[in-house]
Amino acid sequence: MANLGIPQNTIEILQKYHFNFQKKFGQNFLIDTSVLDRIIAAAEITKEDCVLEIGPGIGTMTQYLAECAGEVVAVEIDKNLIPILEETLSAYDNVTVINDDILKVDVNRIVQEKNGGRPVKVVANLPYYITTPIIMGLFENHVPLKSITIMVQKEVADRMQVGPGTKDYGALSLAVQYYAKPEIVANVPPNCFIPRPNVGSAVIRLTRYEVPPVQVKDEKKMFALIRASFNQRRKTLVNGLGNAAGLNISKDQVAQALEQMGLSPTIRGEALTLEQFAVLSDLLG
Known about the structure:
With 285 residues, the protein is of the alpha/beta class. The protein folds into two domains: 7-208, Vaccinia Virus protein VP39 (Rossmann fold, 3-Layer(aba) Sandwich), CATH 3.40.50; 219-284, rRNA adenine dimethylase, C-terminal domain (Helicase, Ruva Protein, domain 3). Helix content is 40%, strand content 18%. It has twelve helices and nine strands. Strands 4-3-2-5-6-9-7 form a seven-stranded mixed sheet, sandwiched between helices. The chain is elongated, with a radius of gyration of 21 Å. The N and C termini lie far apart (57 Å).
C-alpha cells in the first residue's frame, strides 16, 4: 500500500473516496514522513507493544505503527473513514479498527482483551477541542499506560509542561504532571497537514509515572480543588474555593489551611505547586 505520509498519495485516496473533511471532528491529516518518523521514534514503539491509536483518519500513522508494533487498535469516530481504512490498512493483519467515540469506549476492556491487561502505548493526532477530555479520561480511569505520544495544538502542549506563575499554567498542567512526565519532542508547522490548520502543532510525550510524584490522601478531592482554583483565575484561593459549588469548604477553612502552610491569605491558585495543592487538599480533608 502507498505511504500516505507522501502528500500525493493522501490526495489520491481522498479523491477516490470523495472524502469531505468534517469540521466538527477537527480533521487535519499529517502529510510529512519525517514528522511521522519522529512520532514513532518518540513513542519508542517495538514489536512488544500494543498501541492504541485515537483518530487514525485515513490510516497514515496507523501504517507506520503497524510496521513497528505487535498490535494496533485504532478508534475512529467518523464512519465515512472506515471504508478508506479498510483499503489503506488491508496489508496489515495486526490492526483492529473500532468505529466509535473514544470518550464512550471502555478502554480498560480493550487493554484487557488485546494486551492481557498489560500497559499499552497511546499515539494520537488530536483535535484541540477534545484533547483535554481524552487525556484526562485515560489518566482518571487508570487505564494501564506506558506513555501517551500525541500531536496537539502547540499552546496545549506548552500548557501541559509549564510550572506555577505562568499564564498557561492551569488545571491541565497539574493533572498531566501528577500522572506523567511531559516532554515536547517536536514542533510541527501548519504546512505538514492537509487541510492546513490555522495554528502550529507540537508532539508531546507523556511518560506515565508508576507512582505519582506527590502523595495525597484523596486525588479526586485534590483535582476538584485544582479545578475550582482555576475556574476563577482572578480570585484569591480563599474566595475561589470558598464560593465553589460542591466543595462545601468555608473561606475560613481555606484561610486557616493556607496559614498552616505559611502562605498568604491573598494567594491565587496559579502560584501553588502540585505539592502545595496536595498538602492543601489533605489539610482541607
